[in-house]
């Protein structure tokens, strides 16, 4: 009887261990603090915000790959930084009209669905830093874009892979209302860590000038467990400053350079 109990206990321990390993393998495990701004595009002359630049960021094992989300006139979520694409206003143009124009590497303008699915392939290191662009039409439409993006990411079972960022504070509060456990970072640089935490936002993603103007925000963020990110740091001295000040993430157009610096 004693041997039976021992065998049963050993089986349960084995199941638990394998269960933990499986759960861990489904998560993103970051190896550095580097966020590739619009993907890793610059060194290899790839289009910004393309699936190719995303794949390169993953190949580099960046902690994150940033990209920008807008919505077309027919409610398609697309990846593009500017409010226009090929001189066409994205929010007032249908998706089929936009994809008539290819990116410089021959890709079509990617949808958010395509981008997320590409990011899930052979990727155990790189989170998606999803910037929801404020709507040029209305604040309410910006909230609709945010809601659609969150719902799609939930549908694709990618919520643990995504950090949401925005210049629009109302968009971030909308995301937290829909997905209370979502990781969110504010971009504009005008709100203190204490207020960020009180509103349920996870982090600050400010310019280096905003942090130098308010150096007290760095220690306050650490004290309040608010994430520190800085954009877009391409100069060596700026990278060194953020590293010395213990930032959680650094967003850059030079991910290869920053990866080498963080190794040192």
Summarize the structure.
By secondary structure, the chain is α/β, with parallel strands linked by helices. It has helices spanning 2-25, 51-59, 95-98, 112-119, 139-155, 169-178, 193-198, 208-213, 216-223, 236-244, 255-263, and strands at 34-36, 64-71, 77-79, 84-85, 88-89, 127-132, 162-166, 183-186, 203-207, 227-231, 249-252.
In spatial order, strands of the major sheet run 1-2-6-7-8-9-10-11
What's the shape? Answer: globular
CATH fold-level label: TIM Barrel
Structural class: alpha/beta
Number of domains: 1
What's the average pLDDT?
91
Q: Could you tell me the strand content as a percent range?
A: 15-25%
Radius of gyration from the alpha-carbon trace, in angstroms = 20 Å
CATH class: Alpha Beta
Helical content (DSSP H or I, runs of 4+): 40-55%
CATH superfamily assignment?
Answer: Phosphatidylinositol (PI) phosphodiesterase
Count the E strands: 11
**How many separate helices?**
11
CATH architecture verdict: Alpha-Beta Barrel
Which spans of ≥5 residues are poorly predicted at pLDDT below 50? Answer: 1-26
| First-last Cα distance | 57 Å
Query: From N to C, what is the helix and strand string?
Result: HEHEEEEHHEHEHEHEHHEHEH
Largest sheet: 8 strands, parallel, barrel
